[in-house]
Amino acid sequence: MVLSRRGLIAWLSSAAPLSFMLSEQVVAADSDDLILKVSRIIVGRVDLDPGIAKRIGEILSGRVKVFGERLSSLAAALGDGKDRDGALSGLAGDNLDLALIIAQPWYTGHVGTPSEHYQDDAVFVTYLGAEAHRLVADVLPWPSYSTGAPGWWADAPAGVSAPPMPREIVDWTFVPQNLSSSVATAEPRFLALVDSAGATWK
Amino acid sequence: MAEYDADVIVVGAGGFGSVVAQKSALAGKSVIMLEAGPEIPYWKVVENWRSSPRKDNFVEPYGDPPWAPSSYTTGYLNVDTDVKRWPGTARVVGGTSRHWTAITWRFLPEDFKIKSNFGVGIDWPISYDDLEPYYTEAEYFLGVSGLESDDQSGSHPGQAYPSRSKPYPMPPEAKPYIIQRMQMRMADKGLRIIHAPSARASRNYDGRPACIGNNLCQPECPISAKFSGLMAVDRARAAGVQLRSEVVVDRLEKDASGKITSLSYQTRHGERHTLKARTYVIAGHALETPKLLLMNELATRSGQVGRNLMIHIGHLCMMRGEEALWQGRGQYGHGTMMQRRNMQDRDKIPAFTMALWNENYTSQFTDILLKEKKQLGKPLESSIRDVVSRTFLNLVLSEDLPEKPNGITLNSNWKDSLGLPGLNYRYRVSDYSKAMLPRIQNDNALIAQAMGVKDPAVNIYWMCHDHLMGTVMMGNDAATSVVDKNLRCHDHSNLFLVTTGVYPSSASLNPTLTGYAIAMRAGAYIAAEG
């Protein structure tokens, strides 16, 4: 079935596209080291895969105007990264934009805006290296890599204290005692929350 | 030299075509099955998905060969629509029921007779009772997990409905925590969640393992817990069917009586071959089947080929509740709400169902956070966990009616690598479909109320699902339909069309189980022919 549900993502993302531009600029020779150094501060990990960093640098150098210069500027703004939170929260303007561009492949595993079809600027970077999945891996298996036994998903997620529920709730035949026989009419304030086409999370 | 190359030739090696081919072969007939797309193993599809940036494109992992364009191939469909997407189809050995979610609802008796019961749409020339034995056969063929005691109509509370001759072959899978919580919180609003039957194994079944919650039902299950159209192909091959892949059928010849006398295909390199058979079956889904007829000016009497396209107009509402539910634990689809499926006012307001979608959207949500909130560091990482844990999706799938202007025609301005045309695709949301919006909003608001939603929801109005129906409609009258109740072309006595395109009405649920059932029925009929 579907998701197209899947179209949602491209549709939302298109509302605020990042300003990728082709570049003819020559990237600094030491950009491999620099992209890794900057990435370590952005992602907050020292064990980042240098191969992925190199790939990100290569992709972005072909897409982001004056990437080398901007990377140097960002590196200078971030400093030694010992105060990661302070360094990142202090970014603004071009430096913030570039940091977000570099963060995207590290967290999501791709660059650009993927579509549901083929006409887009998206490029694959990594799957198992995507930090966003790692951040929730204690609760959600990396899709396609579950190691659980059938039915593990019935238990409360790790770190969640389930409110009291009847023991029979896990059975599909269970019917809550308070099930109303007819569909209610919603309160206007909740109607207002759900009738806004195109609302985002800003 | 033999008069025929085969007793039966099936065009399209998807699930439905394979069922017909298998039944014919088991009846002792010689069968050749032809497929435009390549054969791609399960593991390769999963690996292609993992290494693609387009995690929401479930067609891409099956490839995009220039000789067999899909509905997502750039330019192949010249799209004219007010819907935010169009259905994805896969041209591959195994067909589009490889990338399906495997949700397997039966249609209701009322769905087959919408005109008689509600005064809108078109009745099927067969009834639920005619199809019930084949539904059962299909459920065992696919290996369906389900709960037979449920009222799946929303209109027969406390009663198992629709009736069935055998229980499901497997019990339901475990109920996810998110469904448990939503069931508890939404009950007093009158929103009842029931189990969604699916062709995903809940225990070992016919060589398939039980689902372990990989949360990758589309494009293909990594452990084959889900039934795939490729499994139907393998069964056909085991029965003796000869499969030829990467061959594109583009010509059918007929005699003065209308009987098909031969077909010919091009290989991917453009070499042409001609075959003759007693019986021809086109099982090329609801785009390629009418396309082949239109290219050969076949089945022209009714003027309905390519018309009456139905795509299950839908709506998506994404909300963030007050408690951590962690959508994405388990399978893509578990629970559905049926209260709007069979109401008495279906003459004015379409039937619809609401599915609580359970896909892991971590990467997609992170993209949005980076681009919209411009967060980095700990604020970003905190937001990722917060958004992923509290966000849930409600998917609406509705019944759209057959309307002649909606459909496909040939587009000679676009050519594939073999010189074959593209398609003009046209669909407009009808006033009938739009009439359901207040009801959808009420129900979404009730969910928001029940789940403690405080922020505006994200909505997509007028999307659709990967469901295609209606383009070669079945009926008793040759003047208004393309095939009869046995899926035989009115105009061509030895040509059968086995596709969801024959549906005269769409109901409000996933069409594939019904497609397998009509394929079972047509397959039995074709196999029994002398």
Strand content of chain A: under 5%
Helicity range of the residues of chain B? 25-40%
Can you give the mean pLDDT of chain A? Answer: 85
Shape of chain B: globular
Low-confidence stretches of chain B: none
Mean pLDDT of chain B: 97
**Structural class by SSE content of chain B:** alpha/beta
Distinct helical segment count of chain A: 8
Number of strands of chain B: 17
Radius of gyration of chain B: 23 Å
Query: What is the H/E string of chain B?
Result: EHEHEHHHHEHEEEEEHEEEHHEEEHHEEH
Distance between the termini of chain A: 29 Å
Hey, which two chains have the biggest interface? A-B, 106 and 125 residues
Q: What is the structural class of chain A?
A: mainly alpha
Gross morphology of chain A:
elongated
| Count of alpha and pi helical runs of chain B | 13
Write the element-wise H/E pattern of chain A from the N-terminal end onward.
Answer: HHHHHHEEHH
Topology, pairings included?
The complex is a heterodimer of chains A (202) and B (530).
Chain A: H1 7-13, H2 31-43, H3 50-61, H4 67-78, H5 84-89, H6 93-108, E1 110-111, E2 123-124, H7 131-135, H8 188-194
Antiparallel strand pairs in A: 1-2
Chain B: E1 6-11, H1 15-26, E2 31-35, H2 42-50, E3 77-81, H3 109-112, H4 114-118, H5 128-142, H6 177-186, E4 193-195, H7 229-238, E5 242-245, E6 247-254, E7 260-267, E8 272-275, E9 277-282, H8 285-295, E10 313-320, E11 333-337, E12 352-357, H9 362-373, H10 377-390, E13 391-398, E14 407-415, E15 421-427, H11 431-434, H12 437-451, E16 458-464, E17 495-497, H13 512-528
